[in-house]
Design goal:
This protein has 362 residues and is an all-alpha fold. Helices cover 77% and strands 0% of the residues. It contains 13 helices and no strands. The longest helix has 36 residues.
Length: 362
């Protein structure tokens, strides 16, 4: 978020974009909750609650393909971002050895196979322990980076980010990736004893998210790095500790998300677990090889999947279930059109950014 703030011109413009995004996010979330409630009332008594967008789209056939495609592509790309993060952690840990890129690629393959074939299938049997460890390690990594930034500023500060024609749309899509909440909203709703409080949870959660991101934006230094660990001196003890904590956090997140993706593909397409795991691993590895930087990948995820999943599809579900007319219907249609246009523009900008980065590399 700090890196995107510098591209957008500082705290004030970024807070403005974040405010608009969160306002539409709340509106889309309310639409989604309305659609979920209507679908659940039409189901048999005692049926399971809706926990994700594809299960909701299953009751609205015309939206099933688009929703499932967006959902699965999002999981693929997010897993790629996790792998890219783990690779950067390894770069920090192995910095004194100066490992070649090919060596890291081999290590990535080992990580993918081990995580998917062992942890991924048994993650549900471990209870809440992985989630607790994940929270502790990410807080530890962030704490180390925060303390090190103030006590021993890194000597490898990045120059100010250059702004190109595609930079602003790509930064906006990066923000969309950061504030995407509808997938989590349905998971949280499924755990609530009183589902009527879902709207309050949505509003309070997004307000707290806005406050935290606003604090981060206001405290942003002039030239923040695009990756968290880059604020630390490579090879230092603090860098190794933070890299280890972040690696553990991302490995757990990777296992949980890969388990969800594999289960969906196995159930929907009758593909064997091992074959499905192997195909996912190869695809994710290709994604990390094609996208040169973490910031570019998050921008692509935000543009291609986060905007549709967080804003566009929830409003479409609301329109399909509520059958509104008049100004409310025109507002919904206008927001859908704007979200589609934003998706196209930011996706093109993110792809352009990736191509330009490859041009600079070569």
């Amino acid at each position: 978020m700090s890196y995107f703030s510098t591209i957008l011109g500082g705290p004030l413009p970024t807070l403005g974009i974040l405010s608009i995004t969160q306002a539409v996010n709340i509106y889309a979330g309310e639409q989604l909750l309305g659609a979920v409630e209507k679908v659940e009332t039409q189901r048999a008594w005692g049926a399971e609650r809706v926990t994700d967008l594809p299960s909701l789209a299953g009751d609205i056939p015309s939206h099933k393909v688009a929703t499932s495609l967006s959902f699965d592509v999002n999981l693929f790309l997010v897993l790629g971002a996790y792998l890219l993060t783990m690779e950067n952690c390894l770069l920090q840990l192995l910095y004194p050895l100066q490992p070649p890129r090919l060596c890291l690629g081999t290590i990535n393959v080992v990580i993918l196979v081990s995580l998917n074939s062992t942890v991924g299938r048994t993650m549900g049997k471990l209870g809440r322990a992985p989630a607790i460890i994940s929270v502790i390690t990410i807080l530890g990594s962030m704490g180390i980076c925060l303390v090190s930034a103030y006590l021993t500023p890194a000597s490898n500060d990045e120059p100010p980010a250059k702004t190109y024609g595609y930079s602003v749309p790509a930064a906006i899509s990066g923000i969309a990736f950061a504030v995407g909440s509808q997938k989590l909203l349905l998971n949280v709703r499924a755990e609530l004893e009183d589902v009527s409080s879902s709207s309050k949870v949505l509003r309070y959660g997004l307000v707290i998210m806005f406050a935290l991101y606003g604090l981060v934006i206001c405290l942003t230094p002039p030239s923040p790095p695009s990756f968290l660990l880059d604020i630390l001196d490579a090879g230092s003890i603090s860098s190794c500790l933070a890299s280890t904590c972040l690696f553990i956090h991302v490995a757990i997140s990777f296992s949980i998300n890969s388990q969800a993706l594999v289960r969906r593909l196995v159930e929907n397409h009758n593909i064997g677990w091992f074959l499905c795991t192997s195909l996912i691993s190869i695809t994710i590895l290709i994604i990390t090889l094609l996208v040169p930087s973490f910031a570019s990948l998050t921008s692509l995820i935000g543009a291609l999947t986060s905007i549709p999943l967080t804003l566009t599809l929830p409003i479409i579900f609301g329109v399909a279930s509520a059958k509104r007319t008049g100004w409310h219907y025109r507002l919904d249609v206008s927001l859908i059109v704007l979200c589609v246009i934003l998706t196209v523009i930011t996706t093109l900008a993110s792809c352009w950014k990736i191509i330009d980065e490859w041009g600079n590399v070569t």
